[in-house]
Design a protein that fits this description.
- By secondary structure, this protein is an alpha+beta fold.
- The protein is globular, with a radius of gyration of 31 Å.
- The strands form six sheets. The protein has a six-stranded mixed β-sheet with strand order 10-11-9-15-18-19, with helices on both faces. The chain has a four-stranded antiparallel β-sheet with strand order 4-5-3-6, with helices on both faces. A three-stranded antiparallel β-sheet has the order 12-13-14.
- Helix 8 crosses helix 29 and helix 22 runs antiparallel to helix 25.
- It has 36 helices and 19 strands.
Length: about 1000
């Protein structure tokens, strides 16, 4: 381990005061307490402060701060005007902070505002930082051999300790730069540490710091990306919800494990995406590695450990000479963990369940297939053109040739479109004026640096990775015998020779062992997925009682029905399930499913035991019969008798007939990361700075600079990765599993994959979309100021601080499938991702330009093979929702509207109102003179007209008639199937 590498990172993390945003000019420019740490003693004694030392390598390391800050702040860093917390002319004022994407403003003011101002500010804040220093576990603070653990504490626990010291979680929002307050001091410190380590080099020695070798080149920072495949193919190869969940979780676990091992080696700050901060699995392993961190980190709940969230693409900052080693470590870690999982499943099947006793661990159908499961790709690009300096101060006009040579080298390295070359004239003019004024008044220079090219560097890296993947020559190994009955890919697991008949493998697979149905035949990967839940306690090193593995069954959508049902409907449900159970018991059979959890947190965590007395699987006669080990000649008799019991309670619609899956993805995330969707600098700076005439530069040049579009720099990028965890790890789980009776399968960054139900999917979908954009909460549980959601009441699963959303300018598109239980899950999943893709393709022409995405496609997959597809913009979807809210409306009215439209569509938008009036006037349910009927008629007519007009405007003409009819048919379907008519008592 290189001590100097970690020392450089500690300096990067603490190069600014932790409470910098609360200081005024007297304390803002100092360092935090890094020099008081025992592990930094030699740096302190030798005056090895990168900010003041003249030593070559330390000057090189110091550039980490420049790259991390100036690139995000543009020329703002050259402004000498300051924005202070609680300025002398307004002591009650805090800071105005900006949403890092939308620029929306929010007021930041700490709880201990008055206490801080009651004494000398600098002394107060210094004493607070001293307490934070003392909070570090003594062994880490004083033992140089624990330097890696110390860094982990500073990176992960210091923010929590700071919030605890002030009893105020909003300190997570403290800006790194009060003049451009759009990313936190924690994000800035983290990326500065990553760059400092990359600039120092992993193998830096104290001797090299003392005297840098003449012919040795400095370490160059690289941006590296690592990915592995297949992804969707692994998830889609699923017959049960257990398989679906396991596929998503396996990918998440393997990615997280790779991140963990790389973070142990090179530091958690290295990860640009995903952010490892407050990630449940990382925190779980961190507490195993450093148990003393439990004061600041709570052990993640089992439910959060079992919700997938890690992507399969990892992006990190590394020293150039360690890129290849890091990528090899990533590959090796994934293969080792995958082999470990395979071994645990094999042991479970062989030792605990005595399944296929002749199967050998090194069988070609087991180990041979598992070893060929993954393909790996990686790429890395230098941060800044190699052979050129990382920064350049040749800003004055007289040095233009030198400056342009450097600019051209950077632009040619990363930018293919010359129109996007840096810098723009307005920015250069402002930089030159500011440079000249600073030199004349302070005899100080400033420079620009390669961080300004962050967005094109990241984009070039993304394209390079795609090119590597496209050049792949990987092929699946040949399957000589029968293939999987789920995916059709890979040989089914069997202990025989490669050449084997389907009849022979069928005999092997008749052994169910509580995991298989006796007819399916799976390949090794699918078998691992099916058995995953059995080995999780061992894999995660958690006792079984603490990690009750639960995932939704295809019948668990009944939870939505019961959540919205009355007490009588709950009683009928329990009596029906009891009748099925008793019928099975009377025949000497046993159903283990009765004791299983639903996999729906709203049910499983409910205080009322009546909600979890029986599993809803008892309402699906097909699954019940499958769970019973009976001879083939009894199957039909059992099905008929159980069907009679269920039909007696539910003569028309069975609440277990349909399940709902949702897949959502943020739109144009690559454009956000490129900075294309960011606003001008003026939208992110405090209003006081816009109006303030900075005497160091002319107001005219400053105002012109503010018209430049803000760039996406490393600190902003890092802040975005960390902030997205608020949406995916807190808000989405709460909305899905607490507000509604659903189950989150995957939530990572801007991606959502969830299980919902027929009764709540539309409300859940709208709430998720409003949350994503930071709009007003439809249920008024959160305040939405500044595009952050803040819980209005304390909730154990939600942080007290403002939680980041993507902001009102971001959009998300969704695919929704409402699936009959008889449709194979693999087909439903294929349709789900197709629906999401079609939603993203949806567009209409708005003022001659494409208005694309921000849409949803809903598909109904019927048991007879038919599919109903409805696609619209989210604003249209909201109008459709209003149509179905009236519980008194019968489904027939929507079927009649669809039928009438198919015969007599309106020729223009202006004809919609007359059409809806004529339609409503002829409906029997609106006939009569009583006030209630007339009001219902008027309301429905308004809602119908609003929906049709919204769809008319946002749908291409050739698709309009079909979409109108399909959405009306969908409304009829939803109304009809949500209406569960009860039969006679049992």
């Amino acid at each position: 381990m290189s001590e100097a590498y970690w020392q450089a990172k500690i300096w990067g993390l603490l190069h600014d005061p932790v409470l910098k945003a609360l200081h005024n000019n007297s304390g803002r420019g100092e360092n935090s307490f890094w020099q008081q740490l025992e592990v930094m003693q030699n740096w302190r004694e030798n005056n090895w402060n990168p900010e003041t030392s003249g030593r070559k390598i330390l000057e090189h390391i110091h550039q980490a701060d420049y790259i991390a800050s100036a690139s995000d702040r543009g020329a703002i860093g050259s402004v000498t005007a300051s924005i202070n917390y609680a300025p002398t002319n307004n002591r009650e004022q805090g800071l105005e902070i900006s949403h890092l994407l939308s620029g929306e403003k929010r007021h930041f003011k700490i709880k201990q505002h008055s206490e801080m101002l009651a004494t000398k500010r600098k002394d107060y804040l210094t004493s607070k930082e001293q307490k934070l220093l003392e909070a570090i576990p003594k062994e880490l603070r004083t033992n140089p051999e624990k330097i890696k653990g110390l860094f982990w504490w500073l990176w992960r626990c210091l923010p929590a300790a700071t919030c605890g010291e002030f009893d105020d979680e909003s300190l997570m929002l403290m800006p790194a730069e009060t003049r451009l307050p759009d990313s936190s001091i924690w994000s800035h410190g983290s990326i500065t540490a990553a760059l400092a380590g990359a600039l120092a080099g992993y193998d830096l020695t104290t001797a090299e710091i003392e005297h840098w070798p003449t012919n040795k080149t400095f370490s160059h920072p690289y941006l590296a990306s690592f990915t592995f495949t297949p992804v969707q193919e692994l998830i889609k190869a699923s017959r049960k919800m257990r398989d679906f969940w396991a596929g998503s979780w396996l990918l998440h676990y393997l990615s997280a494990k790779v991140c963990w091992q790389l973070a142990l080696k090179y530091g958690p700050d290295c990860f640009l995406y995903p952010s490892l901060y407050q990630q449940p699995l990382i925190d779980h392993w961190l507490l195993k590695e450093f148990p003393e961190f439990n004061i600041w980190i709570e052990e993640p709940e089992a439910n959060s450990l079992l919700t997938a969230g890690f992507p399969n693409v990892l992006v990190l900052v590394l020293p150039k000479d360690k890129v290849q080693a890091a990528m090899q470590l990533a590959k090796q870690t994934l293969l080792q963990e995958w082999a470990k999982i395979g071994d645990l499943v094999f042991d479970e099947l062989q030792t605990q369940r005595h399944w296929m006793p002749d199967l050998q661990a090194n069988s070609s159908t087991w180990k041979g297939w598992l070893q060929s499961q993954w393909q790996f790709y990686w790429t890395a690009l230098p941060i800044g053109a190699e052979g050129k300096l990382l920064k350049n101060a040749a800003i004055p006009k007289e040095r233009e040739t030198e400056f342009l040579d450097w600019l051209n080298a950077q632009n040619q390295a990363y930018i293919t479109n010359q129109k996007k070359n840096l810098f723009q004239d307005n920015e250069i003019n402002f930089l030159r004026q500011a440079y000249q004024q600073r030199w004349e008044k302070q005899k100080r220079k400033f420079s620009v640096n390669v961080g300004s090219w962050w967005a094109p560097i990241f984009d070039a890296n993304r394209y390079a990775l795609a090119a590597v993947k496209n050049a792949r020559n990987w092929e699946l190994p040949t399957a000589f015998g029968p293939r999987s009955t789920i995916s059709g890919i890979g040989p089914v697991v069997h202990p025989g020779e490669d050449w084997i008949t389907e009849g022979e493998t069928k005999k092997y697979w008749q052994q169910r062992v509580g995991l298989f149905d006796g007819s399916e035949q799976l390949n090794a990967t699918e078998t691992v997925k099916r058995c995953l839940h059995k080995i999780l306690p061992t894999l995660l090193n958690i006792s079984k009682d603490k990690i009750a593995v639960s995932y939704p069954d295809l019948t668990s959508g009944v939870a939505g029905y019961l959540k919205n049902a009355d007490s009588e409907e709950l009683k009928i449900f329990n009596r029906t399930c009891a009748a099925v159970k008793n019928w099975v018991d009377d025949r000497g059979q046993k159903l283990d499913v009765i004791h299983e959890k639903w996999g729906i947190p709203w049910i499983d965590q409910h205080e009322n035991t009546q909600f979890k007395q029986f599993h809803p699987r008892l309402l699906n006669l097909g699954w019940v019969v499958e769970d019973l080990e009976i001879s083939a000649n009894l199957i039909n008799d059992y099905r008929q008798d159980i069907a009679k019991i269920i039909h007696k309670s539910y003569p028309s619609n069975n609440p277990a007939d349909w399940y709902v899956l949702a897949a959502g993805d943020g739109d144009d995330m690559s454009k956000w990361l490129q900075g294309e969707k960011l606003k001008e600098y003026r939208d992110y700076i405090p209003s006081k700075l816009k109006d303030k005439e900075d005497k160091s530069v002319s107001l005219e040049s400053f105002q012109k600079f503010l018209e430049v579009k803000k760039r996406m720099g490393p600190s902003t990028h890092n802040a975005l990765s960390r902030a997205l965890l608020d949406f995916s790890n807190q808000l989405v789980p709460y909305l899905t599993e607490q507000r509604y009776a659903g189950r989150l399968i995957y939530a990572g960054g801007d991606d959502v994959l969830a299980y919902s139900n027929l009764w709540e999917w539309d409300n859940w979908l709208w709430d998720i979309r409003e949350c994503f954009q930071g709009n007003k909460d439809p249920q008024d549980e959160f305040d939405s100021k500044g595009d952050y959601w803040t819980a209005l009441e304390t909730h154990p699963k939600i942080a007290k601080r403002p939680l980041f959303t993507m902001g009102k300018n971001a959009t998300i598109s969704f695919g929704i499938v409402i699936v009959h239980h008889s449709v194979p899950l693999a087909i439903a999943l294929e349709s789900l991702w197709s629906a999401e893709a079609k939603a993203k393709e949806h567009f209409y022409l708005k003022e001659g330009k494409k208005d694309q995405k921000d849409a949803v496609q809903v598909r109904v997959l019927y048991g007879n093979g038919n599919t109903l597809k409805s696609t619209a913009k989210f604003d249209v979807f909201r109008e459709w929702q209003k149509l179905i809210t009236d519980k008194e409306l019968d489904s027939a009215i929507f079927e009649q509207a669809a039928s009438l439209w198919s015969q007599h569509p309106v020729p223009s938008r202006e004809a919609i109102l007359p059409w809806t009036k004529a339609f409503c006037d002829r409906r029997d349910q609106f006939q009569g003179d009583d006030t209630a009927k007339q009001q219902a008629k008027q309301q429905f007519q308004r809602n119908l007209a609003d929906f049709l007009q919204a769809l008319f405007v946002t749908t291409k003409e050739k698709d309009l008639d079909d979409e109108i009819q399909n959405w009306l048919k969908l409304a009829a379907f939803v109304k009809r199937n949500r209406d569960i008519k009860l039969g006679s008592d049992i």
